[in-house]
Amino acid sequence: MTMMTFSTSRRGLLRGGSAGLLGLIAAPAVFTGRSAAADTTLTVTSWGGDYNKSVREVFADPFTAETGIKVTLVDNGDMAKVKAQVLGNAVQWDVIDAPAAFATSGARDKLWEPLDMAIIKPSALVSQPAPDYMPMYLYSGGLLWDAKRTPDGKHPVDFAGFYDFERFPGRRVMRSLASETLEVALVADGVAPKDLYPLDVERAFRALDRMKKHVTKWAATTPDQVNAVVQNEGDFSYSYFNRVKSAQKSGAALAFSFEQTVNSLDYFAVPKGTKNKEAAMRFIDFCLRADRQVAWAVRGYYLPNNVAAIDEVRKSPSGDFLPDLNNGKNVVVNSAWWGENYTAMQKRYAEWMLT
């Protein structure tokens, strides 16, 4: 018996091949110290849990085997620390795994090295790079719950339901990160996904005000979002299908809804001032190779950015667990808006959580 809820047309993008994806995400508008000598080791930021394991097995270890360059993974997505390293001329993290808001706001603040396209020579890409950050894949977030504790019909499957506390009473888990959280709040409040940007920030925070008293867990990381439901600290949460799938493999009775999702590009960027710039560019090039993109997408249920990888992913079992970006209920994050507004929004959101 499946524990996922699917929209009826979510495979439309996969049936359409890479062309459908090209039109939707072709433009962005849509961390430990180092002990070895420069260019003999890389420190790459990551996002914890099974995600780290995937980065290690799909990207880091094969890169080391081919180049001899050791890769250290650091579970830290703190943009304030990245900025402090760059401005203090003390860069310790060589490649930043950056969601859209991080990548674009970092570019605005001039935190990234220009991409060296003499080293990074990918085959055809779905989404083209910015001068200083490279799109790697597209990921999807949606709602999750414990299927044993919450039977069918007693849980939300879309964002309006997540904010409907009378119809779906229960404890909410919320992320301590503004990006995507504001989008979910606005869609729940009745804003159509196609009309989201520029975000109506005041309306978003009014919706969040209604949510606050129902939150029993503020999750600092994406694994925390999932673990809070697994450990019965909350009933409903927003997180990512790959995290849910990993928990299911470990025996958790989690369910996930594809009825409505938030979809965003993830990028790699290189902090300005790294002593390992050439090795960092080589790592990005390696991760864009079709075989690595297929392995990454199949393992993590992502849409790859390498055009040649898309058909292979479509034919794999993972193709059954990918969102339909042509579904009008789904959100595609506008990374350009977040590039202009991330710092201010995250500051306001952090202050809001404490009030």
TrEMBL record:
Gene3D superfamilies: Periplasmic binding protein-like II (3.40.190.10)
The organism's place on the tree of life at top rank: Bacteria
Keywords recorded for this protein, A-Z: Periplasm, Signal
Pfam families assigned to the protein according to its UniProt record, in alphabetical order: SBP_bac_8
InterPro entries documented for this protein: SBP, TAT_signal
PANTHER family on file: ABC TRANSPORTER SUBSTRATE-BINDING PROTEIN, SPERMIDINE/PUTRESCINE-BINDING PERIPLASMIC PROTEIN
Listed name of the protein: Polyamine ABC transporter substrate-binding protein
Organism field: Prosthecodimorpha staleyi
High-level lineage: Bacteria, Pseudomonadati, Pseudomonadota, Alphaproteobacteria, Hyphomicrobiales
